[in-house]
Amino acid sequence: MVRSPLTATARTKHRDSPVRTCVGCRKRASIGELLRVVAVDGCLVVDERRRLPGRGAWLHPGPECLAKAERRRAFPRALRVSGVLDARAVSARLAAHAVHGPGGGSSPAQSETRKQVDPS
To answer: What's the rounded Cα separation, in Å, for the pair 50 and 52?
Structure first.
């Protein structure tokens, strides 16, 4: 009998985190590292909760992967829609992600570590 090169624990660990392919760079990553993008009325929308209906495309949260996907016209192919899709909302989301970090805003830990100025 031919055995799989993965051990039993590696096989179960592999099943715990689904792997998807980025439509921009075509590299595989776990879904925790990627953003799900769906088409809504001819516009691309980032599906934060991964619950919107329809087909989804997966994308790394970096502007270079978005640029590659747009250049290759990967979104209409991956989402199986015809025509051009507006990616401004995704671009704005990625810009906010780059400025504020993965959380999208300032975290409570950052606000607690700021120095307090004595008003007197």
So the answer is: 6
Of 25, 22, 98, 20, nearest to 68 by C-alpha is: 25
Take residue 102 and report the two structure tokens written for it: 């993965």
Tell the burial category of 20 from Cβ atoms under 10 Å away from its Cβ (0-12, 13-18, 19+): middle
φ and ψ of 118, to 5 deg: -75, 120
* Backbone phi and psi for residue 51, each to the nearest 5 degrees, phi listed first: -130, -5
- H or E element: which one contains 42? none
pTM for this one? 0.70
Distance between CA atoms of 23 and 57, rounded to whole angstroms?
7
pLDDT, tens digit, for every residue of 59-90?
999 999 999 999 999 999 999 999 999 999 99
Q: How far apart are CA 89 and CA 85, in angstroms?
A: 11
Single out the residue of 23, 25, 24, 55 nearest to residue 39, CA to CA. 55
Reported for 102-109, long-range contacts at CB under 8 A and 24+ positions apart, including other chains, are 102/61
